[in-house]
Design goal:
This protein is of the alpha+beta class and 179 residues long. 59% of the residues lie in helices and 21% in strands. The protein has a four-stranded antiparallel β-sheet.
Length: 179
């Protein structure tokens, strides 16, 4: 009599509960793998976000460190070029020996010329002539171009002086970039 129920017991007591357990476990593992995959994706996105945020903060800090220079450069560009060059040359010549440096001419040709004629940026030309020793003139040009980075050397002519053999005649043309 017992073998009449054996098939029902095996089917309803073992096979169906095992199949349901396997189905529940497979659903559980699918949900878990989706959660792990979602977590890994969100973690990767968060790391990318933090990296971009840190890079943005570094750029902002760099800009803030340069802000005083930007303000100074804008202030320099807003100055009238000829007077700024004259003032800088006067300050430079105060530090250098007067026998080794003499300004002989200063002119400002009208209109754009040189590099400025092919650029959309506003510019002007400045032509300056000096008499001096080579070493002193190097120091003077270095100081002038350091103080006024908007000057771009366009032309430099050096000739021996006819009055004194130790001195040279320098004629310099700069393009001065302006606002």
């Amino acid at each position: 009599m017992m073998h009449l129920y054996r098939q029902s017991i095996i089917l309803f007591g073992i096979i169906i509960p095992v199949a349901i357990a396997v189905g529940v476990l497979s659903i559980f593992f699918m949900i878990k793998s989706n959660m792990v995959e979602s977590f890994d994706h969100k973690l990767k996105s968060y790391k990318t976000y933090r990296t971009a945020q840190n890079a943005g903060w570094e750029i902002e800090a760099g800009v803030n460190r340069q802000r005083k220079h930007i303000d100074r450069w804008n202030q320099q560009l807003s100055q009238e070029t000829a007077s700024a060059v004259t003032t800088s040359l006067r300050e430079i010549s105060d530090h250098l020996p007067s026998k080794e440096l003499q300004q002989t001419a200063f002119e400002r040709p009208g209109g754009k010329g040189g590099f400025g004629s092919i650029s959309a940026q506003n510019s002007s030309q400045i032509r300056i002539a000096f008499r001096g020793t080579f070493r002193t003139m190097q120091r003077a040009f270095l100081e002038l171009e350091t103080r006024m980075p908007r000057l771009q050397l366009q032309d430099l002519k050096i000739d021996p002086s006819t009055s004194q053999s130790s001195l040279l005649n320098f004629q310099v043309t700069y393009t001065a970039w302006e606002n």
